[in-house]
Each structure stands twice: as structure tokens, then as C-alpha cells.
Design brief:
Helix content: 40-55%
Strand content: 5-15%
Largest sheet: 4 strands, mixed
CATH superfamily of the largest domain: Glutaredoxin
Order of helices and strands: HHHHEHHEEEH
CATH architecture of the largest domain: 3-Layer(aba) Sandwich
Number of helices: 7
Structural class: alpha+beta
Radius of gyration: 17 Å
Number of domains: 2
Length: 157
């Protein structure tokens, strides 16, 4: 399957590229735009990113595989991330993790059969003072209880 950026996204990439002294520095912005367009980052997408920026594909691969916000396989419509790092763990993150796994019926990095939800255990989302926290796509929920998590998940159905 060949991947090509839309004209609109090529313009967005050019604007991102202009913010940085080198094309390499625009990789993260470009990968994010690609993921928005394609839903995940495949080998074909990485090749196109490298071509558009005029860089080696290994640089794209290193970014995609380092950051948890980029996905190398299709994820659910609602990608649920549960932080289980120290601050969140101390405030009940594993109870929330078990609750979400049980409610969705999936494990880490799996997608529900209907493609609606995917689940990921993540290390730190930078909200240590507001732990525990969960992210659903680009929305962040902090100071969670099991009841609040239940409400959030139910609101997505």
C-alpha cells in the first residue's frame, strides 16, 4: 500500500519545516501529521516521511520507535493510555489499569474486536501532581477514581 501526503498536509509539513534549522528537526511534527492522516505509522509512511524531508529513513524509525505517542499498527478509535509510573501507581493506577482492561476485555497494545478501543500502559504522562491519570486520544483526565474512569469509558460508547 503506497502512502502519499495530501496537499494540505504537505503544506503543514512545509510550515513545520520552516520552524527548524534542519529538516531532521521537523521529524516529530511530520510523523504526527502522518499519523493523523494514516492512523498509524507503517513502513510505507516512514519512507514517505523520509522522502518528503530528504532524510534517511533510520531517523524516522528512531523517532517512531522511541516515543509512545506514535503507533506502528492500527489502534482503536479511542486509544486509552493508563499511566502506571510511580506517582500514579502510588495513587491507585494499577486498580484503574485492571478496571480498564476488564471493561474493555483487552490487554496492553490490543484493540477491541470492533476497533473502537485500544489500550496502552504508559510510563509517565507528566501529571505526577494530579495522579492517577488516563489519556483518551488527545484528552487527558487527572485525579481519577474508578467511578470517574467508568464514566469516561461509558461516555465513549
Amino acid at each position: 500500500m503506497e502512502f502519499k501526503f495530501t496537499e494540505e498536509n504537505l503544506k503543514r509539513i512545509e510550515l513545520a519545516r520552516e520552524k527548524y534549522p534542519t529538516a531532521l528537526a521537523a521529524v516529530m511534527d511530520t510523523v504526527y501529521i502522518a499519523q493523523e492522516q494514516n492512523g498509524y505509522i507503517s513502513n510505507e509512511v516512514m519512507e514517505e516521511i523520509a522522502n518528503v524531508l530528504g532524510i534517511d529513513k533510520v531517523y524516522v524509525l528512531s523517532v517512531v520507535t522511541f516515543y509512545t505517542m506514535y503507533h506502528t499498527k492500527p489502534m482503536g478509535k479511542y486509544h486509552v493510555q493508563v499511566c502506571t509510573n510511580v506517582s500514579c501507581m502510588l495513587r491507585g493506577a494499577y486498580d484503574i489499569w485492571d478496571q480498564v482492561k476488564g471493561k474493555l476485555g483487552i490487554e496492553n497494545m490490543q484493540v477491541t474486536p470492533d476497533g473502537k478501543f485500544s489500550l496502552e500502559e504508559v510510563e509517565c504522562m507528566g501529571a505526577c501532581g494530579y495522579a492517577p491519570m488516563v489519556a483518551v486520544n488527545e484528552d487527558y483526565f487527572e485525579n481519577l477514581t474508578k467511578d470517574k474512569v467508568e464514566e469516561i469509558l461509558d461516555s465513549l460508547k
